[in-house]
Amino acid sequence: MQTSHQKPTLILLHEIYGINDHMKSIIRHFERAGFVVYCPHLLGQVKHFDADSEDEAYRYFMDEVGFEQSVKAVLHLARDLKMKDVDTDIFVLGFSVGATIAWLCSSYEQLFTGIIGFYGSRIRDYVAITPTCNTLLFFPTIETSFNPQQIVAVLEKKDGLRLTMVEGMHGFANPYSEAFDADSKDRCFQEVEDFVNANLKKDRSVGIT
């Protein structure tokens, strides 16, 4: 058994909807797996949006929040955590816009042990970034606004970056989404577990699946 201070840390980054039932289920899942989980609320005064308010939620995030402000919030949290325990392993896990925020944090190797992102569609705007810590990204084969295969073809040339194409659509890992695919989600979470355990300090391990 790991003691509390030995547990790795997970910073979970939500979608445009905020900390909804999906994010709450992810928090519980990774706490059971052995992480200390932080899920910073990035939407300011807005608690969360319903799934049927996608357009409104997207406009709010882009107009009132944005990626730059979100990255600053994540870096601030990570630095606070490192001040408390410089040796702690900090992983960032993001979904959708959260995955793009996670990707933007991937150049801060002094703060993060690993970066994980699920269907970060706006990563296509930041393909010039080269991660300096180990990074794992999942892309679906189907996106409505761009061709994921083209983005993967660009990103796969970068060192330290692990890419997985998943049969399905944006949201395949979200049980509250019409795009949910249980088999794809389970396979990806097994890959997340392998990735985390490969990058943790040698005397630690987690069980995510």
UniProtKB/TrEMBL annotation:
InterPro entries: AB_hydrolase_fold, Dienelactn_hydro, Dienelactone_hydrolase-like
Domain (Dienelactone hydrolase): residue spans on this chain: 4-198
Domain of life of the organism encoding this protein: Bacteria
Keyword Hydrolase appears in the UniProt entry: yes
Keywords attached to this entry: Hydrolase
SUPFAM superfamilies recorded: alpha/beta-Hydrolases
Keyword Membrane assigned: no
GO molecular function (one): hydrolase activity
Pfam family, one: DLH
PANTHER family, sorted: ALPHA_BETA-HYDROLASES SUPERFAMILY PROTEIN (PTHR46623:SF6), CARBOXYMETHYLENEBUTENOLIDASE-RELATED (PTHR46623)
Protein's recorded name: Dienelactone hydrolase
Natural source organism: Bacillus pumilus
